[in-house]
Design a protein that fits this description.
This is Exosome complex component RRP43. Pfam families: RNase_PH, RNase_PH_C. This protein is α+β, with helices and mostly antiparallel strands. It is about 30% helix and about 30% strand. The protein starts with a helix and ends with a helix.
């Protein structure tokens, strides 16, 4: 009977749970799904990537591979490199996506990640410059969803951060006489990660009720969503709210407070995994 009711009246079905301050999957309103992260070659056989990570948020599974290439800096940013993110939501991850050019949701997710990189200053683009006006690193960050069950933004931001922390770049110098670049593959250095931005997403039910880490079904039934990005110092990097129900100042502050707590959990998880894969 409950399966039929859920199919015919999904919103009403959810409301019955929300009245009891819980959700159909057994979680409390402020509870995240089980979160795991695997970093580097242990997580995925992307041998061509300079850094990689796989993140699972409940059933939502995202992989991020970072590929570094050399290029000339832009004329107006002679001392800066580039970071180029791209989020893919292929048809294999969910029936809601079709094959072909990136859809609206994938484009919005790519823009969100680009904003997080810019606003948080996760990496100073000056750190990617090898020789001013001559040579710089370009980091192509490809984030691919393997299984979609909601909250793609949190999973993507987490996978990006974990993959960037795994990147090792070879030592590169520019020969003054020939003007050619010389790459030393034996000497590799990690990226300088200046900030650790973490995204925390909420779904808004019936214009007032906030639930954290929504599933795909919960996103469909919600009257709005909001994603808060915070850094190591608990500073607000960005608030992403694509329309929907407005939030009062008090509700928004509640979201920020919860996001700061979530940041500590995610940072702890990444640190633990990185420590475990470092050679003893």
């Amino acid at each position: 009977l409950s399966i039929c009711f859920r199919t015919v009246e999904p919103l009403e079905y959810y409301r019955r749970f929300l009245k009891e301050n819980c959700r159909p999957d057994g979680r409390e309103l402020g509870e995240f799904r089980a979160t795991t992260v695997n970093i580097g070659k242990s997580c995925c056989s992307i041998t061509t990537a300079d850094g990689s990570a796989l993140v699972k948020l409940g059933n939502t599974t995202v992989i991020c591979g970072v590929k570094a290439e050399l290029a000339a800096p832009a004329v107006d940013s002679a001392n800066k490199g580039y970071i180029v993110p791209n989020v893919e939501l292929p048809s294999l991850c969910s029936t809601r996506f079709r094959s072909g050019p990136p859809g609206e949701e994938a484009q919005a997710a790519s823009q969100f990640i680009a904003d997080v990189i810019e606003n948080s200053q996760i990496i100073a683009k000056e750190d990617l410059c090898i020789a001013s006006g001559k040579l710089a690193w370009v980091l192509y960050c490809d984030i691919i969803c393997l299984d979609y069950d909601g909250n793609i933004l949190d999973a993507s931001a987490f996978a990006l951060l974990a993959a960037l922390k795994n990147v090792q770049l070879p030592s590169v110098t520019v020969n003054e006489e020939t003007g050619l670049s010389e790459v030393n593959l034996k000497q590799k250095n990690p990226l300088i990660i200046r900030k650790h931005p973490v995204a925390t997403s909420f779904a808004i039910f019936d214009d007032t009720l906030l639930i954290v880490d929504p599933t795909a079904e919960e996103e469909d039934l919600a009257t709005g969503t909001v994603t808060i990005v915070t850094d190591d110092e608990g500073r607000l990097c960005s608030v992403h709210k694509p329309g929907g129900s407005p939030l009062t100042g008090a509700k928004l502050q509640d979201c920020i407070t919860r996001a700061i707590t979530r940041h500590k959990e995610v940072k702890k998880l990444i640190d633990k995994v990185i420590k475990s894969i470092k050679p003893k």
